[in-house]
Structures are given as structure tokens and as C-alpha cells.
Amino acid sequence: MKKIGILGGTFDPPHLGHLIIANEVLNTMSLDEIWFMPNQEPPHKKKSNAIDDEDRVNLLKLAIQGHPNFKIELIELKRKGPSYSYETMKILKETHLDKQFYFIIGADMIEYLPKWYNIDELFDIVQFIGVRRPSYSHQSPYPILYAEVPEINISSSLIRSRLKEGKTVRYIVPDSVRSYIKEKNLYGP
Q: Per the domain annotation, does 175 fall within a domain?
């Protein structure tokens, strides 16, 4: 049975922090693949709407190109309304009977788990892998596996802010992502 890590998010834009987390979890947890899953409407925060979904997917494709174990799963973008992990994972489990899923979350989401939609049922169908992040608690009443990942304090909102101010994002996003952003004049002033 293939072991698949699911890394969800807005990826608005994807950055090196996302890639480092994915690569570290892939290797430390001996997973077969990481599926990046851009969401439609995150229930826990307001979507930035900085760019359209097509550009988010194109940026994600550029970010993961060349890594044979990184894939993109578009199930949440194809559905309308809030992206509830329970509903998504239920569909993925029913569609991919030959795969075992691991849902990768940062420490900010570990703290928020008790508020997730159908969280107890979600734990019945997927194993969570928590990734440490600076200044967050890693305590949870739920059984979570933990992956040691270098603490990188990069966020998509930081990148959008820097781009809006005309600042550089070199070495924060892959060069291919930076080129696409510049070419399409995304996030700019």
C-alpha cells in the first residue's frame, strides 16, 4: 500500500518553506509521495484572493517540478464552498483504496484541531503528521506523529507583502515561481 502525505494550503504563493516541509516529511516518515492540495475556501481563515486558482496551480506546478515524488491533487479546487478536510479525505480514501493517507499540518493547525469539522471521524480515516513551527504549542489531545523539520519562518502572506512593497523574494520562493510572478505581474504594487 502506497503511503501518501497530503499537504494542503492556499499556496498563494508556494514557497521554499512548503517544499522543505514536504521533502523532510517525505523522507523522515518514509512516505512514497507528497500530494500538494490547494484549497478552495479554507474554513479557518479568509482566502487572500490575491490571484486566481489557475495561477496558484501554475505556481505550484513550477514549485514542485523536477521532484519525482511531489504531485498536485486538485480535488478541493474542483468543489465549491469551504474545503473541509474530513469530506476531502473521505472522498480520497474511497477513490484510492490502495493508498494510506497522512495529513501534514503545521503547529498552528495542531492547536486548532479541536475546532476542525468532524475531527474525531477524520482521525478514523487518516493519520496526522505535525510539523513544528516557531512560537506554537505542539500539544494535542489527538494522536499525532511528529516530523522534525528545520524551522523556517516563511509565509505566503509575508511574500505577498514583500512583493506589494516592491521588495525581493529571491531565495524565499523557487526561481521559477519568482519568474512567473514577475512575468504575470502578480502580487505587485
A: no
Structure-block grid coordinates of residue 147: 516530523
pTM above 0.85, yes or no: yes
CATH of the domain at 37: 3.40.50.620
HEC letters along 25-49: HHHHCCCCEEEEEECCECCCCCCCC
Q: Cell numbers of 63, please?
A: 514549485
Q: Cβ–Cβ contacts within 10 Å for residue 164, how many?
A: 12
**Strand 33-38 vs strand 2-9: parallel, antiparallel, or unpaired?**
parallel
Q: Look at the chain and report how many structural domains it folds into.
A: 1
- What pLDDT, on a 0 to 100 scale, did the predictor assign at position 40? 80
Can you give the pLDDT at residue 62?
97
Domain interval for residue 107: 2-151
Contacts of residue 144, Cβ cutoff 8 Å, sequence gap at least 6 = 110, 128, 129, 130
Of 179, 160, 171, 151, nearest in space to 20 by CA: 151
